[in-house]
Amino acid sequence: MGGEFSQNSTALKRWASKARTNFTIDMIHFVAAVLKDIFEHGRDYPWGRPDKCFKCGHYKVWGHGFVPRLFDGFSSPLLIKCYRCPNCCCVITLRPVSHFSRIQSSIETIRSRLQHRLEKGRWGPFFTLFTSRYRHWLSNLRRRIKAYLTEKWSQGEMAAFDWFITQGQVPVSVI
Ligand SMILES: [Zn+2]
To answer: Ligand 1 mean position to 85 CA, how many Å?
Structure first.
């Protein structure tokens, strides 16, 4: 019994170290970057290196290759730069500040299309391809307003969208 326990315990430790790695891989650092330039320059795009590790404050992070990420308007993934901290081992993935993490459309596009929908009551003819996506985002925004700002919020949905951004939240993500 004791042996089994220690076996399990080793397995748990192994899992924990993997889980820790999994938890740390998703650190995102937003930077000013133009997608068209990233597309054109590929691996030569001058991303700039973060001054320090954002997790542990270590003075230096090392280049850690690239990850492919899809963005609207580009038929193939763009190569996004990663860095790794030699001290705490976290991986920092850069992200153009024009885009929320995990969302291919730019913040500006999302905002203007939601605004159009709220003002005109329809999505407009050229949204057909992505309408379900936007509908999904609008319902996420409304759910978020209800949860965080409650029924008392009277400044409108777009003001709420902007407020969530100032709070570091993604206004259209699932809560
Ligand atoms: Zn670190």
So the answer is: 5
